[in-house]
Amino acid sequence: MAISDVMTTSFYQGVLRQFDTAAELLGLDQELRVILRTPKRELTVNFPVRMDDGSVRMFQGYRVQHNVNCGPAKGGIRYSPEASLDEVRALAMLMTWKCAVLGIPYGGAKGGVNVDRRELSKAELERLTRRYATEISVLIGPDLDIPAPDVNTDAQIMAWIMDTLSMHSGHNVPAVVTGKPVVIGGSEGRVEATGRGVFIVAREVAKHLSLPFVGANVVIQGFGNVGSVTARLMHDAGCKIIALSDIYGAIYNPNGIDVNLALQYVKEHGKLLGLPGSQEITNAQLLETPCDILIPAATEGQLTHANADRIQTKLIVEAANGPTTPEADVIFQKRGIPVVPDILANAGGVTVSYFEWVQGRENFFWSEKRVNEQLEEMMQTSIGHVLHEADTKAIPLRMAAYAVAIQRVALATEMRGIYP
Ligand code: NAD
């Protein structure tokens, strides 16, 4: 078994464990537990792609729909050498709870292709995407399952998927994906939405815990779509971003990093390392840097039993999916470090994806101001529900978010009943 298999298997087991703990807390009916913890549909596809040198390479991809009792399945697609069926299962299940905690009428899904995007030319990337889209076209559609960008996928890739499905149908099907470019039916504010949601959550939870926000020392792991937007919004709001990282390494500046400069530097150099005025550290050191707010915004399994005792922060906000293992969660609980769970913290993306889908179906498009206001309102409402659940039941924020989400999906499942 490869190391990545060990990691991803434990990620899925971790997500199941979080569900089991919440189900126990809620005293959920045993039969309902079995239904809710089992993925509804799982598709594995193997497909050939013609490479630029004329050779043919086989790729493996996945699409998993975890639960569709509250609406069509929704979830991103990631391109990663670590992508596996178990990882996609875990992420699909998280999507079910994420949509439910926000009260969005969707079920949970996720997709992935086992590929290192950096090895492909743009033409190869397009051929791979169009073929993968064709392979999973038996499952996706505006009323069935709506993909979106995730790690190493973006608006361009969504445009190719939308175009492929539209070519199959003979007419435009914009609502088959979200996170598209605005020019073909994407939503204003979608690119920034996940980071904006993380920012809103960090600000509101800090306020609730009476932690100062303006002037807070913030550490962010990952400087991609989510991490960079979060960093910029927090910087603009007066937080001090003292450490940032990407896959190549991390940078530290106790006086605060100018995030706009960092964005410009990454555009020019492709990485953060070498940003003038900053000191190079490792990603492991970054996580252990003393700070007020720690935001893992890269990938899963970053805060584990191996480093949880050395994390020196007052608040963790999970911008990435699954960055904290269940073992680390227990340690943080014992140490009194609150963890805002992924299913709430990074739900801004799926919320604006929902807005994009609604706009696409109505062919009536909103201003960025309206998108951001509506996002703020939905996030505020959900944060309020989760904080209330946590306070009244005296449970950690993750369990509170799961409780809100699971109760909604459980009720929908009970009301619909079992067919036939
Ligand atoms: P991205 O590909 O745009 O950026 C990922 C960033 O993390 C990059 O800076 C990359 O260099 C860095 N990175 C990757 N592996 C790393 C590692 N092992 N150590 C340190 N840095 C590493 O991806 P993204 O869209 O920003 O997604 C980041 C996380 O947020 C993922 O967990 C994703 O599932 C989650 N998420 C994304 C969205 C979205 O709308 N994009 C929505 C919800 C959740």
CATH superfamily of the domain at 193-337: NAD(P)-binding Rossmann-like Domain
* Unreliable parts: 1-9
Estimated share of beta-strand residues: 15-25%
Query: What is the strand tally?
Result: 12
Rounded radius of gyration (Å): 20 Å
CATH C-level class of the domain at 193-337: Alpha Beta
What name does CATH use for the topology of the domain at 193-337? Rossmann fold
Rough outline: globular
Question: Whole-Å distance between the termini?
Answer: 41 Å
Can you tell me the CATH architecture of the domain at 193-337? Answer: 3-Layer(aba) Sandwich
- Discrete helix count: 14
H/E element sequence: HHEEEHEHEHHEHEEHEHEEHEHHHH
Largest sheet: 7 strands, mixed
Overall average residue pLDDT: 96
The computed structural class is: alpha/beta
Bound molecules: nicotinamide-adenine-dinucleotide
What is the strand arrangement across the widest sheet? 9-8-7-6-10-11-12
As a percent range, the share of helical residues equals: 40-55%
Q: Overview of this structure, please?
A:
- The protein is of the alpha/beta class.
- Among the domains are: 135 residues, Leucine Dehydrogenase, chain A, domain 1 (Rossmann fold, 3-Layer(aba) Sandwich), CATH 3.40.50.10860; 145 residues, Rossmann fold (3-Layer(aba) Sandwich), CATH 3.40.50.
- The chain contains 14 helices and 12 strands.
- The strands form 2 sheets. A 7-stranded mixed β-sheet has the order 9-8-7-6-10-11-12. Strands 1-2-4-3-5 form a 5-stranded mixed β-sheet.
- Helix 6 crosses helix 12.
- The longest helix has 26 residues.
- The radius of gyration is 20 Å and the shape is globular.
- It starts with a helix and ends with a helix.
